[in-house]
Amino acid sequence: MQSDNVIEVKDLKKKFKVYYDKGNSLKEKILFKSRNKYEERWVLNGISFNVKKGEAIGLIGHNGCGKSTTLKLLNRIIYPTSGEIKMKGRVSSLIELGAGFHPDMSGRENIYINASIFGLTKKEIDERIDDIIEFSELEEFMDNPVRTYSSGMYMRLAFAVAINVDADILLIDEILAVGDANFQAKCFNKLREIKGKGVTIVIVSHSLGQVEQICDRTIWIDKGLIREEGQPRKVHPLYMDYMSDTTLNSHQKKEEEEEKTTESEEVQNENVVEENSPRDIGNFDIKITDVQLIDVKTRKPATKFHIEDQMELQVCYMRKNKNIKKCEFGFHIFRSDGLDYYGTNTLIDKVNSVELKDTGKISVVFGAIYLLQGEYKIDIAFHNDLGLTYNHRYNAVEFEIKNYYDEVGIARVTHEWIFNEKEK
Predict the structure, then answer these.
(1) Three-class HEC string of 219-242
(2) All structural domains of the chain with their residue ranges
(3) d(Cα 36, Cα 30) in Å, to the nearest integer?
(4) Which of 42, 39, 47 lies closest to 15, judged by CA?
(5) In terms of Cα–Cα distance, which of 119, 75, 111, 65 is closest to 96?
């Protein structure tokens, strides 16, 4: 195992026996042998990937593609048909809601049981139990049997235990989809915090927004194989295009082709996809209608700037879902070769959420551009505080920086030269 890896998966395969009508009793199995017929179904057909210490990866794909099976194999709930899994360090998981809880025991007793499963001693649990209870916000229910808990309370308790066992690896399967909005946001922020401390995280999620905010890399599993792997912003548009194509019926496809006939005639190769063209994903409850860059000095639209110029990003939107009153907004700047320069959002910057109107405009003013010469592009996104994406536009706008000096790198670092300074 390589020293900088904490997870190594090599040629992982898994098959299950799927019975058509399996007999439950010995009598049924003898008298109705035909009921014991089954087929072998391969869920994973040979996937391989590595995860480094402190890295967060997201596993995405349609239902039944094998992503949750992969997570259960990593957690050793089930074992592979063939292939190899190597993991380094203590593993904590949130795979199934309430897994490992005894329904007739109290929340407090289940903390001790669940934490001991993760490898903590009683002394270690004693030291952490106050933090676990405080994070779960279940103080008044802690001595009640967990069978009286709601699904949201189950999730609170399970998450509170999982993040307090000092794990090296945290495995999560759609667990953040349960619970009230405030606690989901609290869990999401806690994940960012423990990731910053070097914990390796593997998440299975259908929320691409959540994956993009936490994960460094996305692995798209399709039909038991890895179809695409890389930065979320590169993989997710391909996945969304694929999902859109598979859900359109033949009539819809025909209509789309007719609408695109004029454009298609101008394209020499219909199979070529412009990687740098704008692409949108999300549920479009809030829709981006226009994006442009403004030269602050001239107050005119521009795509070419000089280093240290002031630039303003203007984004117009339309609210399609009137029930959404507020949202978060973010931007991400990349160089044309994909090098990540800078990204942030209103949530990270701790500024007020966007107060939405039916139609509106948001501006981001860059006091000075310290990028060196090159071509750049900006992604923009509207989302809620849990990462649900309303509209994420990749390559929303492009611009070029001109520089008359011979500096090298991606950005200018302000500095001064001091020579022959006299001693004081």
Answers:
(1) EEEECCEEEEEECHHHHHHHHHHH
(2) 5-238, 279-402
(3) 10
(4) 42
(5) 75
Dihedral sign (CA 70, 75, 78, 84): positive
* Composition of the chain by helix, strand, coil, percent to 5: 30, 35, 35
Collect all residues with Cβ–Cβ distance below 8 Å to 396 and sequence separation of at least 6: 278, 288, 291, 315, 377, 378, 379, 380
Task: Report which secondary-structure segment, H or E, holds 213.
Answer: helix 208-214
**Topology of domain 279-402, per CATH?**
Coagulation Factor XIII; Chain A, domain 1 (2.70.50)
Which three-class secondary structure string do you get for 254-302? HHHHHHCHHHHHCCCCCCCCCCCCCEEECCCCEEEEEEEEEECCCCEEC
The strand order across the sheet containing 91-94 reads 91-94, 169-173, 200-204, 56-60, 217-222, 225-230
Burial class for 171, CB neighbours closer than 10 Å (0-12, 13-18, 19+):
buried
End-to-end CA distance of the chain: 55
Decide: 241 and 62 in contact? Cβ < 8 Å.
no
**Cα–Cα dist 97/160, whole Å:** 13
Question: Average pLDDT of 161-176?
Answer: 84
Q: Give yes or no for residue 142 having a pLDDT over 60.
A: yes
* Alpha-carbon distances, residue 332 vs 93, 100, 315 (angstroms): 31, 40, 14
Which pLDDT band holds residue 226 (cuts at 50, 70, 90)?
A: very high
Q: In the CATH hierarchy, which top-level class contains the domain 5-238?
A: alpha beta
Q: Which residue has the tokens 């490898």?
A: 119
